[in-house]
Amino acid sequence: MIATHEYVKEKFGEFNRLFFGGKLPTLPICMSNARTFLGACTYKRKKNWLGKTVLYDFKLKISKRLDLPENDIEDIIIHEMIHYYIAINKMKDSSAHGPLFRQMMNDINTKYGRHITISHKMTSEQHLASADKTEKWHVVAVVSMKNGKTGMKVLPRTKSGIAKYHNGVMKSGEVDEVKLYICKDAYFNRFPTSSALRVYYPPLEDLSEHLKDAQTLNINFA
Questions:
Q1: With CB atoms 3.0 to 4.6 Å apart as the test, which of 27, 112, 131, 222 could cross-link to 190 if both were Cys?
Q2: What is the pTM of this model?
Q3: What's the average model confidence in pLDDT over 34-50?
């Protein structure tokens, strides 16, 4: 299932009563399209007039990008609620997932048959599944290295951005050739678009397959 705001709000109330004695204050629930996390409990810090650190502006963020089993979504919500409980009660732990967090997590897992884990970052397979499938135009630089490797980079759709990358990598001494293509294949959505002097190395057969309908882009950099 894909989590919704109403679902997360309902589960927060249910788990608050079941696991935390109903002691957790309600907080804003934000549904996220981010690809970097599945769940997060965020807050801000400030010093009060006594110089003590105060935590405020708590938010529970849950990804709606992936279709996950319901039990997995529930465990993600509980994981973040443990963080919230520790922070809101000013409890001290040695790290984000220190002994206190682990003890609370293990107690809930043992007593209620949950499968909460220390980390719920996206796996590489989930990252691929979460990639935007919308077709959009990309400028793709295929970079042939002198050591025989072939990589790629998605570039801005401006002559200045393309020139900055092309001229920069050609100065490295490690690059043999840069070929430019323009295409609408959604495969390239998963790569960042910039003029940063980086090269990504997806499987060569994947790169060839997704560039088979691309058009060659010829630019005079003189």
A1: 131
A2: 0.57
A3: 85
DSSP state of 119: -
pLDDT at 33: 78
pLDDT band at 208 (very low <50, low <70, confident <90, very high): very high
Which of 51, 50, 54, 8 lies closest to 30, judged by CA? 8
Distance of CA 53 to the CA centre of its chain: 29
Q: Residue 216 in contact with residue 181, Cβ under 8 Å? A: yes
Choose among 213, 219, 202, 222: nearest CA to 142: 202
- Give phi and psi for 181, each to the nearest 5: -135, 155
Kind of pairing, strands 150-155 and 53-63?
unpaired
65-92 tens-digit pLDDT: 777 888 989 999 999 999 999 999 999 8
With cut-offs at 50, 70 and 90, classify the pLDDT of residue 121: low
Cα–Cα–Cα angle for 82, 83, 86, nearest 5°? Answer: 85
Asked whether the CA dihedral 9, 13, 18, 22 is positive or negative, the reply is positive
Residue 86 gets the label, from left (phi > 0), alpha (psi -120 to 50) or beta, of alpha
Instruction: Tally the residues of the chain.
Output: 222
User: Taking a C-beta distance cutoff of 8 angstroms, is the pair 185, 149 a contact?
Assistant: no
Encoding tokens for residue 201?
């190395």
Query: Are 74 and 104 in contact, with CB atoms under 8 Å apart?
Result: no
pLDDT at 16: 96
Q: Exposure of 36 by Cβ count < 10 A (0-12 exposed, 13-18 middle, 19+ buried)?
A: exposed
